[in-house]
Input
Amino acid sequence: QVHLVESGGGSVQAGGSLRLSCAASGATNSINLMGWFRQAPGKEREEVAALYTVNTNTYYRDSVKGRFTISFDNAKNTLYLQMNSLKPEDTGAYSCAAGSYNPSIPLKVVVPAFGFANFGYWGQGTQVTVSS
Output
């Protein structure tokens, strides 16, 4: 079992920055895939960014490319999402997720094809609100 705890959400004005953290504990040697998802009120959950913890492969949805950076600190077993130039449309509940997959397959293929299917562990979520 893997336990995920997010932190770092909050309220900012458009153009501001936030950094989300997700601390993983438990059977972390069973996972090699981690990601951030978000859900805005009245909308479906969507993937934001993902990475393999064992290589440098990353995935970003088009709307956050160039503004968000996903990273993982192996020593701390912590996933981060640095969010810059935030927009009101980035508002939502952000959740951290973890799972496993074949790390030789690029995430730009895996995430659009399988969505949430490869993520078996989820955190409780942290709210991000961006005001205009």
Summary: The longest strand covers residues 18-26.
